[in-house]
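Sequence, please.
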């Protein structure tokens, strides 16, 4: 019960901080709109779809997975800012649960992600995206678990590197291959056999494939159970590692 109370207090702290940053909110809202407005028209030439809505039915769920990855990987930057400003140091003298100190901001970030996703779904619906509520609810669970995993990894890596330059270098090194191998913007099926094989080592690839199946309202696809089978155990492992790193940082 104490851990839950501490997590709620830290959630409120992080949530209030984000609300006070209108620039961050504007960027978060504009990213999905830009993907829909600027990139979707280009995809019609690749898919030979009859309409923009048909294109969105295929690619928009992948964009939601991309937003989950971006939201999660960005959490490490905030951790480094708090580390450099002495916030992490102050946490060492508090009786707050170490897991709650980690979990509170993660839940806050996930709340904002769902808010941005809801705006993106509304905009996509205006462009012709077909909404399947059951699939979207299952997709929300999938990208939520993936976002927690990515956030935990980002925070742990930030506490390990301790410097924003080193952390940014690691993120830049990993972001591009992770995004390209996931087939977020262009399906990985367009690539050669070796590229499709390598893509199976990318967790985001499974999320994107599962997201497209769920976005279409199809629950019988193997991509769905494969996505959960990969992401849920990885989330548990990464969250355990991140908690261990965080406890040492604020011990």
């Amino acid at each position: 019960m104490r851990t839950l109370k501490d997590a709620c207090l830290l959630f409120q702290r992080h949530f209030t901080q984000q609300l006070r940053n209108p620039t961050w909110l504007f960027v978060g809202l504009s990213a999905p709109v830009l993907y829909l407005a600027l990139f979707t028209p280009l995809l019609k030439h690749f898919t030979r779809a009859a309409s923009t809505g048909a294109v969105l039915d295929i690619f928009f769920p992948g964009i939601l997975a991309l937003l989950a990855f971006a939201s999660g990987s960005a959490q490490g930057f905030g951790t480094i800012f708090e580390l450099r400003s002495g916030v992490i140091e102050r946490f060492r003298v508090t009786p707050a649960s170490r897991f709650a100190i980690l979990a509170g901001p993660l839940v806050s970030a996930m709340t904002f992600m769902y808010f941005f996703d809801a705006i993106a779904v509304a905009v996509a619906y205006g462009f012709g995206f077909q909404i399947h509520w059951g699939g979207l609810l299952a997709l929300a669970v999938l990208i939520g678990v993936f976002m927690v995993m990515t956030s935990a990894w980002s925070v742990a890596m930030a506490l390990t590197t301790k410097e924003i330059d080193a952390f940014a270098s690691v993120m830049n090194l990993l972001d591009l291959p992770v995004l390209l191998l996931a087939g977020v913007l262009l399906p990985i099926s367009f690539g050669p056999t070796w590229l499709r094989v390598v893509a199976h080592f990318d967790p985001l690839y499974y999320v994107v494939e599962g997201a497209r199946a769920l976005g279409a309202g199809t629950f019988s696809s193997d991509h769905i159970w494969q996505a959960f089978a990969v992401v849920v155990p990885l989330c548990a492992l990464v969250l355990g590692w991140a908690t261990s790193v965080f406890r040492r940082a604020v011990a």
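The chain is about 85% helix and 0% strand.
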